[in-house]
């Protein structure tokens, strides 16, 4: 039972990762993302998730420095973009990300999407970075079971994390089970379905019962399903409200009612069919 914002899950290599963090997708580089990162850290967040393609790693790094919290207390994730996949290009992309962030290491480095014919070479580069201590853990994002099975046939290191679109309308039970069986931590991006679930009647009814917002109920559902969650916001009020999920627990009955909302409905691209 997660009872505070700093609670962590232990990844398959022993590294501790916070259950809860800030996503910065679509946060503009410069003042907007700096303010979001410093505000989140001041509100107790210890995990920040960015990516090369977000074009805001420099601002994330600045926010980390301005927060006044020691680097070793934070958990920073970034991702290699599709155009940079491949062995040498991934190593170069990592160095570029590190330089923009102004950090000596990242806690988690992910392959952003399973680019056909590329992700295995990319994974070899991640394994190299991991062996050399440049990253504390490596993982993937947007990988289906088929991609994971393929990767695991040659991988020397099992991915520590798989970050995927995950919310009550897209609960991905088979993927979740596969990840649990292989000790891969599932992590949710777009946990609030980009705001599309905030007026969902079942969720609003449950929220009323606990005197919480719909968003808080969804994020609590993530945690009780043992899924790491990284809601994105650049508004301080929302950043703080999203974190107010550690003082209540959803009943089994309410968890089941939320589980029943699954329709395999995506807001983002299908990892089997994307062209970027």
From TrEMBL:
> Which SUPFAM superfamilies does the UniProt entry name for this protein?
NAD(P)-linked oxidoreductase
**PROSITE patterns recorded for this chain?**
ALDOKETO_REDUCTASE_1, ALDOKETO_REDUCTASE_2, ALDOKETO_REDUCTASE_3
Positions annotated as active site in the UniProt record: 54
NADP recorded as keyword: yes
Parts of the chain that traverse the membrane: none
Q: Which sites bind substrate?
A: 112
Gene Ontology MF: a single term: oxidoreductase activity, acting on the CH-OH group of donors, NAD or NADP as acceptor
Q: Show the CDD domains listed in the entry.
A: AKR_AKR5G1-3 (cd19157)
Q: Where is the NADP-dependent oxidoreductase domain?
A: 21-262
Mind listing the UniProt keywords for this protein, alphabetically?
Answer: NADP, Oxidoreductase
Transmembrane among the record's keywords? no
Site description Lowers pKa of active site Tyr, residues in chain: 79
Q: Which InterPro entries match?
A: AKR, AKR5G, Aldo/ket_reductase_CS, NAD(P)_OxRdtase_dom_sf, NADP_OxRdtase_dom
Which family does the record claim for this protein?
Belongs to the aldo/keto reductase family.
Protein name according to UniProt: Glyoxal reductase
């Amino acid at each position: 039972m997660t009872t505070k914002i700093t609670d962590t899950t232990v990844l398959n290599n022993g590294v501790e990762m916070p259950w809860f963090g800030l996503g910065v997708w679509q946060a503009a580089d410069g003042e907007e993302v700096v303010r979001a990162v410093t505000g989140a850290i001041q509100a107790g967040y210890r995990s920040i998730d960015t990516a090369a393609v977000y074009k805001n790693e420099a601002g994330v790094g600045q926010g980390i420095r301005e927060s006044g919290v020691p680097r070793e207390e934070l958990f920073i994730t970034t991702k290699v973009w599709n155009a940079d996949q491949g062995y040498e290009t991934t190593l170069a992309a990592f160095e570029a990300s590190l330089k923009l962030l102004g950090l000596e290491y990242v806690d988690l480095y992910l392959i952003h999407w399973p680019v056909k014919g590329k992700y295995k070479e990319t994974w070899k580069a991640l394994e190299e970075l991991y062996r050399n201590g440049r990253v504390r853990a490596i993982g993937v994002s947007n990988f289906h079971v088929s991609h994971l099975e393929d990767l695991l046939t040659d991988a020397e290191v099992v991915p520590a994390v798989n970050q995927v679109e995950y919310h009550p309308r897209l609960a991905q039970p088979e993927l979740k089970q596969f990840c649990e069986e292989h000790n891969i931590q599932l992590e949710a991006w777009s946990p609030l379905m980009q705001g599309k679930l905030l007026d969902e009647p079942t969720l609003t009814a449950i929220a009323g019962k606990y005197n919480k917002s719909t968003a808080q109920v969804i994020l609590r559902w993530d945690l009780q399903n043992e899924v790491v969650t990284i809601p994105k916001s650049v508004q301080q009020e929302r950043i703080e409200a999203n974190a107010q999920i550690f003082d209540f627990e959803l009943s089994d009955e309410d968890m089941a009612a939320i589980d029943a909302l699954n329709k395999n409905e995506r807001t983002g691209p299908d990892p089997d069919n994307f062209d970027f």
